[in-house]
Amino acid sequence: MGYALTLLPFVLVLFVYMGASDIRLAENPSDKILPAPSTIVATAERLVGEPDKRSGEILFWNDTGISLVRLALGVGIAALTGLVAGLLIGLFPYMRSTFSGFVAVLSMVPPLAVLPILFIAFGLGEVSKVALIAIGITPFLIRDLSQRTVEIPSEQIVKAQTLGASSLAIALRVVLPQLLPRLIQGVRLALGPAWLFLIAAEAIAAEAGLGYRIFLVRRYLAMDIILTYVAWITFLAFIIDLLLRSAGRRLFPWSEPAGGSGL
Amino acid sequence: MSYVTVTDLHKTYAGFPILERVNLSVEKGTFVSIVGASGCGKSTFLRLLLAQERPTRGEITIDGQPPALEPNRDRGIVFQRYSVFGHMTVRENLIAAEALGATVWGVLPSRARRKAAEDVADAALERIGLAHMGKAYPASLSGGMQQRLAIAQSLIAKPRILLLDEPFGALDPGTRASMHDFLLEIKAEWDMTVFMVTHDLSEGFKLGDRVLVFDKVRWDPHEPHAYGATVTYDFDARNGGIPFQSLSIETVEEITV
Ligand SMILES: Nc1ncnc2c1ncn2[C@@H]1O[C@H](COP(=O)(O)OP(=O)(O)OP(=O)(O)O)[C@@H](O)[C@H]1O
Ligand SMILES: [Mg+2]
């Protein structure tokens, strides 16, 4: 029953699409805007199976690999920066008074507006794409994690001091472990924007990648390819989120709210 | 011989005196209960003993040492809540009592030290009746179990004084009574010097060797914040206050009702 309800909207959308596609194809059999599901499946099979004539590589998997590496690097750098900066800003008052205003303003800068600067500064290669993702989500992660650090009860910090802990020991053994589950949550939230920045950067300047491919075939109105890629990106985003969620549960059992299933 | 000596202690927040002219001399092994109206500065006094804050004037010395500038292993503390580390298991919390201060990284430097800390932790687990809960996280413990863990964790560091700020304030009466027995046993075993803030006068007399009452001696109705609190009564509470006072717990309860 639960599954049936979950699937219902998907089925509805599929039916609406099939109906609309049928109508358009009945009027004009060579219509490319709403290809029949059978066409999309055929295209998808070709995309994942047939190597490119020129390079001999299967472009679909090539694009996927390149995009995922960019995404992982950008998100990884942002996560590490967010963790270190969030901890320092949250734990040390003089760090907070120095940097929290700066980070607040920084997070207001629209990252896409900075993209031309990145292209000028780092060229059109990998660095500028990874940098856009990192720059786009780091301020959010810093603010989220410094907020979490501030929320750690001061009693725990004092308690650690009475057990002889140095500031470093407090940061590493009391604060950092309590930030990690929040980091996973933050990264899950930031992945949406991270995909956006990745695809935008690839659309503007790239030689490969999921976003690059979508914008390339747009010129030929290849809706079947675009839809295959969109579905694939959605699936990847879903799987990554699922993996992060279960990793968080497994690694930090103490952070789960009792009895709550959550999303 | 005075172990904890408080001399002419003053504490002022933003120009408002909270504590003034507190003088006190406590012998080693004494259990001092502290009572007083809400907001009169009991927790402030504990924070000063803890060296979490510095006095505006006056000083506190323990065992003749120069006044501390920060909390350290000489002073153990148990708060009403959040006194244990939620991300560590019960057993890890007890091992951390040795590990956090062992190196600048907060980890034990050798396998032998690790083994020793584990043995201490296991003995403590046994002692506080949580041997079966070693692998559990504090969130799954009852309030009383959490406070027993917090007290054990503090004692492993072998502090010179143990500070308790309303440690049983969040517990139900039954659990509280069993915690009293636990604390009295611990006190007899360790000969600890303890300062405990409580809102429960009978608890203060039951556990304490001395009961200090904090209150304002001067009071200006036009400026209620003009003066700070100090120790206004200092009861000897051994044997329920007999024969040093003719004040029994029953009469105290009558007074407070
Ligand atoms: N950091 C601070 N800055 C300014 N005022 C403070 C600070 N800490 C405490 N105070 C004030 O000092 C007074 C005494 O506070 P304290 O917490 O010591 O009272 P208390 O006796 O422990 O009260 P309670 O019984 O409610 O716990 C209060 O009026 C409080 O508002
Ligand atoms: Mg208080």
TrEMBL record, chain B:
A Pfam family this protein belongs to?
A: ABC_tran
Q: Which PROSITE patterns match?
A: ABC_TRANSPORTER_1 (PS00211), ABC_TRANSPORTER_2 (PS50893)
Alphabetized UniProt keyword annotations? ATP-binding, Nucleotide-binding, Transport
Q: Which PANTHER family match?
A: BICARBONATE TRANSPORT ATP-BINDING PROTEIN CMPC, SPERMIDINE/PUTRESCINE IMPORT ATP-BINDING PROTEIN POTA
Ranked from the top, the taxonomy reads: Bacteria, Pseudomonadati, Pseudomonadota, Alphaproteobacteria, Rhodospirillales
InterPro entries, alphabetized: AAA+_ATPase, ABC_SmlMolc_Importer, ABC_transporter-like_ATP-bd, ABC_transporter-like_CS, P-loop_NTPase
Q: What is this protein called?
A: ABC transporter ATP-binding protein
Record SUPFAM superfamilies: P-loop containing nucleoside triphosphate hydrolases (SSF52540)
Among CDD domains, the record links this protein to: ABC_NrtD_SsuB_transporters (cd03293)
In alphabetical order, the GO MF annotations are:
ATP binding; ATP hydrolysis activity
Domain named ABC transporter is located at 4-241
